[in-house]
Amino acid sequence: MNNSDKLTRRSLLLRALGAAGAVFLAGCERLSHTEWFPKILAAGEKASESVHHLIARKAMAQEFTPADLSPSFRSNGTAEPNNPVYAELAANGFGAYKLAVDGKVDKPAMFTMTELRALPERTQITRHDCVEGWSAIGKWKGVKLSAILDAVKPQPSARYVVFHCADPMEDDGTKPYYESIDMDDAYHAQTILAYELNDQPLPAANGAPIRLRVERQLGYKHAKYIMRIELVDSFAPIAGGKGGYWEDEGYEWYAGI
Amino acid sequence: MTQPGSAGAGTSSELYYRHTLPVRIMHWINVVCVAVLFMSGLNIFNAHPALNWGKSSYTGTEPVLEIGARMAGARVIGVTRVAGHEFETTGGLGAFYNDAGEAESRAFPSWLTVPSTQWLAMARRWHFFFAWLFLINGVAYVAYSLFSRHLGRDLAPTRQDWRSIGRSFIDHLRFKHPTGEEAKRYNVLQRLAYLAVIFVLLPLVILMGMAMSPWLDGVLPGWIDIVGGRQSARTIHFIAAWLLVAFVLIHVLEVIVSGLWNHLRSMITGRYRITVEAGHEQQR
């Protein structure tokens, strides 16, 4: 074998490698668009969920000091809900706002802001991690979700807490944002409905009058502009059936990773 | 050397059983995992194409690395900012033009990402599925290597290896590779490179990936502050991934220059051909 043979073999190889790469990429592309393959891939995130719950079901999220606070807390998603009902409530400083809590509970109830502020509260400086990759640290004060649940008495069949929000995700005012968490997260000590951010009333851009903080999950779980809380045994009948606006768009319901 | 396969007067060759079946299987699983993890990782990066140092992204300091696009006159250009220095990277990073002359703004090009379009939810599915496969494969490999003594016999440098490190370095620079009996064993730089990847780089990239999970951060609150916080972990994850790619490129280059088909065969069938010159044989 002489040198020119070697060279031809080498250029042949490079071409073969290039072709293999192209086939690989086209394969990945095609698989992403099938019905069945993403379901197999989802097993990865399901495995993470199982292992995470096994090793740290009730662990607390890290809390920070005022020195760690981000200079300003980034607003993401909706900054001002395109919803006349919400606009009117906001115009009156949420004086007429009432949070409805219903579904699989023994004592459905409505809470005014004054009533919510009278319930047991918690203040925490935590990090908000967006699914995109960025993080911001803010100080949140809010009513413990467990206190609200204690007041409405969930029925044994209640498995998820669903948050119905005021912000429509379509320009024509449809597809209101919604999210859901399980009962473990609902009763977690750091799970609060925040009405203050950095010692100020929660700004509209961050979800006024109340938003969820569910600290060990990604930002899209932290529903803003909450109007109604519904306890359900299954979220399959709601909207796209995946338990949340972004979940219906293909993101995982478990957002701890 | 009385094996069949004599390669002419004065030399003989043998097919030496170099890679065991488990190693070969785990090697090719790794190839697929590293390719998918790297490319889906770049798609995930594209969703927020900036790297920060610290506990959050908004600490008042500039990102370490930022890839984006901006207008320069009437034209969209790709810009990459590294530690405060801005470079125009149109066509490479940040902004791309298609054949119709339309600009697309994205950090890494579509031919480097899985999926090729900007699709964060799908990229995460690919990434986390293959992360599990990669982790399980890696743990199986380390367990196998300990159990089969592959680690102690083939990877741990011997005292003689340490002494030959300077010569091995020069040999590598001159693309001079061991032949004969010497080619049966990994050279010292090869051993050190494999050990560094297996026991430093891979655990680091996996751990920094886990550090980005808000749930896992709660297992031992504050553990990620060891590296400076979640955004530092994200930056280290990114750098470690590129170091792995650098390792793969050097690895493939070495394979090509030291006998591609021989190496490929040995990683498929296990058999590696060794040519021994009669003169040399007696010295061993």
Count of helical segments of chain B? 10
**Series of secondary-structure elements of chain A, N-terminal to C-terminal:** HHHEEHEEHEEHEEEEH
**Average predicted confidence as pLDDT of chain B:** 92
H and E string of chain B? EHEEEEEEHHHHHHHHEH
Q: Layout of SSEs?
A:
The complex is a heterodimer of chains A (257) and B (284).
Chain A: H1 3-32, H2 37-55, H3 84-91, E1 98-103, E2 109-112, H4 113-118, E3 121-129, E4 135-144, H5 145-152, E5 160-168, E6 176-182, H6 183-186, E7 192-197, E8 200-201, E9 211-213, E10 226-232, H7 245-248
Parallel strand pairs in A: 1-10
Antiparallel strand pairs in A: 1-2, 3-4, 4-7, 5-6, 5-10, 7-8, 7-9
Chain B: E1 11-17, H1 21-46, E2 50-51, E3 65-72, E4 75-82, E5 85-88, E6 94-97, E7 103-106, H2 120-147, H3 150-155, H4 159-163, H5 165-173, H6 188-211, H7 214-217, H8 230-257, H9 260-268, E8 271-277, H10 278-283
Antiparallel strand pairs in B: 1-8, 2-3, 3-4, 4-5, 6-7
Helix pairs in contact in B: 1-2, 6-8
Describe this structure in words.
The complex is a heterodimer of chains A (257) and B (284). Chain A is built from seven helices and ten strands. With 257 residues, chain A is α+β, with helices and mostly antiparallel strands. A five-stranded mixed β-sheet of chain A has the order 2-1-10-5-6. By secondary structure, chain B is of the alpha+beta class. Chain B has two domains: 11-20 and 148-283, no CATH class; 50-107, no CATH class. Chain B has helices at residues 21-46, 120-147, 150-155, 159-163, 165-173, 188-211, 214-217, 230-257, 260-268, 278-283, and strands spanning 11-17, 50-51, 65-72, 75-82, 85-88, 94-97, 103-106, 271-277. A four-stranded antiparallel β-sheet of chain B has the order 2-3-4-5. A two-stranded antiparallel sheet of chain B has the order 1-8. In chain B, a hairpin with a 2-residue loop joins strand 4 (75-82) and strand 5 (85-88). In chain B, helix 1 (21-46) runs antiparallel to helix 2 (120-147) and helix 6 packs antiparallel against helix 8 (230-257). At the A-B interface, helix 1, helix 2 and strand 4 of A face helix 1, helix 2, helix 7 and helix 8 of B.
